[in-house]
């Protein structure tokens, strides 16, 4: 099947805005149920119909704060896929785009673009037989080796947790996951995509070095603007490559 409809899930407004503006995508206020804080932007780029969804701002605790983490990511992705399915505009491909922490032990540096080979959780620890692999929740990404060569991007596993920082036990599980990068949404987005049978992968730009000597929150804020710009430059190249190709050609 040729790819003509692409859904792009981006958690934070600052990550999405440069890309949305660059491609002149327009807001669609009717896309999500009115009770949700999520945003959708739609338009055509070359031969592809694009839908970008973001998690929006928190409406319960602090309206200046982006909704981040696995809960809003899973719900926004599920509702977006459900909406497209109900209007016979099923997404041919889902791309989870955003920033991430990278591991120097896996060759990550600030500004690097990684494409995911798989996702997993590092903070869902359920020490009960059968529940342990469920908690880790490893899901393979769609193979994008040709795209990685085209972009000169790196490939690796993205590990997901609901905290920006981490402690020693998290570090152990991130190592067990063979993680190259770390984020707060990828595993949840992939889980929702799997429910609809939608092929998916992640495009992640490194803002901070997880196993470095700087506090993650300081390095993240310091490099967020630069990483968002790098993401804006990478995503059109990704769309150019995937549109009108079959999944096997990625």
UniProtKB/TrEMBL annotation:
Pfam families: PNP_UDP_1. Coiled coil: none annotated. Signal peptide: none annotated. Residues 6-239 form the Nucleoside phosphorylase domain. This is Nucleoside phosphorylase domain-containing protein.
């Amino acid at each position: 099947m040729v790819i003509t409809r692409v859904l792009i899930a981006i958690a934070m407004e600052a990550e999405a805005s440069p890309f949305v503006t660059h491609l002149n995508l327009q807001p669609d206020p009717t896309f999500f149920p009115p009770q949700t804080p999520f945003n959708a932007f739609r338009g055509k780029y070359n031969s592809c119909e694009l839908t970008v969804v973001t998690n929006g701002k928190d409406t319960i605790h602090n309206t200046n704060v982006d909704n981040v983490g696995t809960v809003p990511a899973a719900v926004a992705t599920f509702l977006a896929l459900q909406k497209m399915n109900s209007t016979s505009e099923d997404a041919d491909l889902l791309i989870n785009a955003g920033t991430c922490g990278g591991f120097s032990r896996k060759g990550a540096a600030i500004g690097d673009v990684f494409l995911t080979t798989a996702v997993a959780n590092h903070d869902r620890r359920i020490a009960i037989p059968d529940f342990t692999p469920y908690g880790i929740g490893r899901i393979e990404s769609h193979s994008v080796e040709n795209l990685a060569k085209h972009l000169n991007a790196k490939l690796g596993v993205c590990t997901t947790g609901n905290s920006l920082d981490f402690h020693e036990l998290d570090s152990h599980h991130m190592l067990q996951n063979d993680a190259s990068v770390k984020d707060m949404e990828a595993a949840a987005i992939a889980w929702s995509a799997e429910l609809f049978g939608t092929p998916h992968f992640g495009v992640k730009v490194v803002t901070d070095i997880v196993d470095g000597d700087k506090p993650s929150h300081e390095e993240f804020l310091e490099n967020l603007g630069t990483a968002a710009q790098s993401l804006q430059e990478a995503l059109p190249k990704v769309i150019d490559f995937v549109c009108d190709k079959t999944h096997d050609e990625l």
